[in-house]
From TrEMBL:
<dbReference type="InterPro" id="IPR036249">
    <property type="entry name" value="Thioredoxin-like_sf"/>
</dbReference>
<dbReference type="InterPro" id="IPR005955">
    <property type="entry name" value="GST_Zeta"/>
</dbReference>
<dbReference type="GO" id="GO:0004364">
    <property type="term" value="F:glutathione transferase activity"/>
</dbReference>
<dbReference type="InterPro" id="IPR040079">
    <property type="entry name" value="Glutathione_S-Trfase"/>
</dbReference>
<dbReference type="GO" id="GO:0005737">
    <property type="term" value="C:cytoplasm"/>
</dbReference>
<feature type="domain" description="GST N-terminal">
    <location>
        <begin position="10"/>
        <end position="91"/>
    </location>
</feature>
<dbReference type="InterPro" id="IPR034333">
    <property type="entry name" value="GST_Zeta_N"/>
</dbReference>
<dbReference type="GO" id="GO:0006749">
    <property type="term" value="P:glutathione metabolic process"/>
</dbReference>
<dbReference type="InterPro" id="IPR010987">
    <property type="entry name" value="Glutathione-S-Trfase_C-like"/>
</dbReference>
<protein>
    <recommendedName>
        <fullName>glutathione transferase</fullName>
        <ecNumber>2.5.1.18</ecNumber>
    </recommendedName>
</protein>
<dbReference type="Pfam" id="PF13417">
    <property type="entry name" value="GST_N_3"/>
</dbReference>
<dbReference type="GO" id="GO:0016034">
    <property type="term" value="F:maleylacetoacetate isomerase activity"/>
</dbReference>
<dbReference type="InterPro" id="IPR036282">
    <property type="entry name" value="Glutathione-S-Trfase_C_sf"/>
</dbReference>
<feature type="domain" description="GST C-terminal">
    <location>
        <begin position="96"/>
        <end position="221"/>
    </location>
</feature>
<comment type="similarity">
    <text>Belongs to the GST superfamily. Zeta family.</text>
</comment>
<dbReference type="InterPro" id="IPR034330">
    <property type="entry name" value="GST_Zeta_C"/>
</dbReference>
<dbReference type="GO" id="GO:0006559">
    <property type="term" value="P:L-phenylalanine catabolic process"/>
</dbReference>
Length: 221
């Protein structure tokens, strides 16, 4: 299926790295909202995030960073909230209060309690301080603990997607996280049937396909 996602042309620039799951969330959201953007690659493997130019955009040296004219927003969670307020087309948060805050809760679990615990920098630090076997065990434990919480949180609300029949913010965070868990850490998703089912739905979305790491201009670099 062809992604007809970039239909409008605001002055958006996304600083991204193809393998960053945090940047992946933002690419997925931009596609869902139909927002065109300029892709600027920041090669984390080569340390380009520590350049003086990038440090002015984000002193923490992380991607993604979104530039919208004079506005600079870093951190994927903050970027998605900014996009939701500035560009309300194709809402990423439902009107229903319960489902709205369910989406925010799921996104928060991933952004604060799963993804940061298996960042490359975290795993390298653990390897240096503890030993070569510990980082993988730590990552697997962190992901499975978080997925168990999400499974319980969403099982009574999920349908084709995390909180129903529409793609919302929880899905934008879940899709890349599940993909990373499967491809990089070989997580057995049969333990999490709700998450496994909705991930199959994501795989058919043109906006998700267009956001895949291998589809980015800097893929393989």
């Amino acid at each position: 299926m062809e992604c007809k996602c970039r239909t409008s042309s605001p002055n958006l620039v996304l600083y991204s790295y193809w393998q960053s799951s945090c940047a992946w969330r933002v690419r997925f959201a931009l596609n869902l909202k139909g927002l065109s953007y300029e892709y600027k690659a920041v090669n984390l493997a080569k340390g380009e995030q520590f350049s003086p130019e990038f440090e002015q955009l984000n002193p923490l040296h992380y991607v993604p960073v979104l530039v919208d004219g004079d506005v600079v927003v870093s951190d994927s969670y903050a970027i998605l909230l900014y996009l939701e307020e500035k560009y309300p087309q194709k809402a990423l948060l439902p009107d229903d209060p319960q489902r709205r805050y369910l989406n925010l809760q799921a996104a928060s679990i991933i952004s604060s309690s799963i993804q940061p615990l298996h960042m490359v920098s975290m795993l390298k630090y653990l390897e240096e301080k503890i030993g070569p076997e510990e980082p993988l065990l730590w990552a697997l434990s962190s992901i499975e603990k978080g997925f168990l919480a999400l499974e319980r949180l969403l099982k009574d609300f999920a349908s084709s997607y995390a909180t129903g029949e529409a793609v919302y913010m929880a899905d934008v965070f879940l899709a890349p996280q599940i993909a990373v868990a499967i491809m990089r850490f070989k997580i057995d998703m049969s333990k999490f049937p709700t998450l496994a089912r909705i991930y199959e739905s994501y795989k058919g979305l043109p906006e998700f396909i267009a956001s895949l790491p291998q589809s980015q201009p800097d893929a393989g670099q």
